[in-house]
Amino acid sequence: MATISITGYTDKVSYAPGDTVNVQVSVDNALEAQVEVVRLIHGDEHPEGPGFIEEVIPSTLSGSHAVTKQFVDDGNAVVVEDPRNLLGLTDSFTIYSFIFPTMPDNGRQVLLGRYSLPENAGYALGIDAHSRLAFWVANGKDSDEIASEIPLVHHTWYFVAASFDAKSGKTVLHQQAVVNPYNGRLGRVAPFDHTSTVEQKLRVTPTVASSPFYWGAATNSAAVRGTFRDFKYNGKIDRSGIVGRALSLDEMKALADNAGVIADPLVFWDTTDGYGPDGIDDVVRDQGPNGLHGKGLQRPVRAMTGYNWSGKHDDWRVAPGEYGGIAFHDDAVMDCEWDATVSWTIPAGTRSGAYAIRVTIGEVEDHITFFIRPTKATAPILYLMPTNSYLAYANEMIVHHVPVGQAILAHAAVLSEKEADYYQDPKYGRSTYDHWADGAGVCYTSWKRPILNIRPKWRSSAIGTTWQFPRDLSVIAWLENKNYSYDVATDHDLAANPDLLKDYKVVLTGSHPEYWSEQGLNDLEDYVAGGGRLMYLGGNGFYWVVSYRAGEPEFMEVRKGEAGMRAWQAEPGEYHHQTSAEKGGIWRNRARPPQKLTGVGFTTQGFDECHPYKRMPDSYHKSVSWIFNGVEGEVFGDFGLALGGAAGLETERYDLELGTPPHTKLLASSTSWSDNYAGVVEDILFNHPGTLGTQSDTVRADMTYFTAANDGAVFSTGSIAWMSALPSFGFENNVSQVMKNVLDAFQKPGSLPGGAWNQEEKSWT
What number does CATH give the domain 77-328? Predict the structure, then answer.
């Protein structure tokens, strides 16, 4: 019997009552499915907790719906709109480009061309099955091609060109390496000659293909899925063009020397054009007379070094002429572009929270997650779901794509069937912890695709515990169990509404709010400085820089820089974001370490054990002792659904030198970690002994508290594992008690218990 599978996504991350949720679903081997709307309450199925909890919401969606299989047209490309059919070339022409192939041995690939495989028509400049530059033409019945004598070397810049004389069939194919000591595999010391010029008479003159002109792809089709892109390219393409005549070899060489500029182009795409002070769009602009502009598909990566990068600048705004490179990857997926299967308009009065569209066929089901925010504040407490971090980890396969992945875990990964299948066929795109097929780090991620690990029951087999979203549901379950009135919103809601926080007395974070935009950080700092109260309930937060292009909140950019615990690092010169022009990397390297906001910052990670906390002397001070009312003894949190402890996985430390406010109280700490917990790399200037868990006093988890102006305050747990301890013993435990003490105090108007720090008098008042 054929295996049934279900997956899907919503068109947005977050909605408000009155909005319509469009749900894109794809199903293998079935035509109908049962659909329900559910509110998600608890996601960790650990046997020592309450298990999976959801609430079915009566809705117009409830019932059976028609479903079908939907396909993904993956891979980056640029499509050129050509309403006058100027690129349907059948006469003499020359086509040329600067290229930087990263997988020339990956089969036939199109660089530039208008070529249809089903029609066997058109022309293309590309790479053949033997890693050689090639030019081919087809007339609907027959095809012919010319190929270079010398294979292309990966990660090397070339100027390539093909001239075709329609009358004689004479074709000249030319390639020459661009030897740049700053950019590419080849340098001056060993200047191997990769120049090749081949002349051949082709038997075929191209006929016009009905398909578009593409950079990085040809058109193909299949009976079931219809039209799709094929012959996809991996690598960069810089300035490119077409001339409406057959150039001589000398003229082609002159093009290489003149950055591709010629007096009489049919089209000249200047990939350095369109760079504004705040970012770069996806339009590849034609500087020729015909305005044949290209549009990027699946977001080709820009702000990339070009063939002429000098190595003097790492900011594309300073030298945009050196940043003509556009990177293409044959497995990139930003938008599946599926048709909506069902739609649901959220009724007025629907409470905010984490929701899912539950799709069921027999025993097979999927939960397609989304969030509902309130139209205005309904409670004193806001739980801010870290959707930036969810996107960063979307479909992550770090155990496969990072060589030291299993060493970090301290055990061999035992993958679930779903994880193993996805590694074999990552058809819905990768996370920013992975690499594209050619080895480049994935710097873009998107909500507009199925995301396996933003599911309520997801348990990472590699880590051996829940991660992110299903763990974050434990706070919702705890709030429900303790009968608190609260709202739920997301990082994306904060980005859309900088005033979101001001109507709340308390803001709670998720377990791993790692990825933050500049605006988000500013808003949170303003909130605390204005009297807001922040409960930071996680670890490794406020760490990486992210950005969005205006009007596209479902697409996020991350560029990993020269510091931080990172799965990959951007290439030299490519640290600045395309979408915002700001420098990527960790916020600490932009002089905003997390300690300035929360009192603690990332210090270690490990996935072999979790620990309890021990109270520190500060915790007995009159200003903060109330936090431990009802907690017996010095040790607490020696339990939890995450490896048996409330402290661990990724943890943070108090550090005055990095900006912990001087009056911060160190409430508790967790120490004595195994050597699988190592200090973070940004703390290490030299490799030396003494940085591991049994050796270094920086390897710990610190719980802190400090007051801010206007009766504001920040409580931080310093641990990802914290909230996984809340559900233990039916939510009746000492971690839960600490949480309740702080939240009860924080949500009350007026002064905090124990008073506030008086900066002028240097005392608590």
Answer: 2.60.120.200
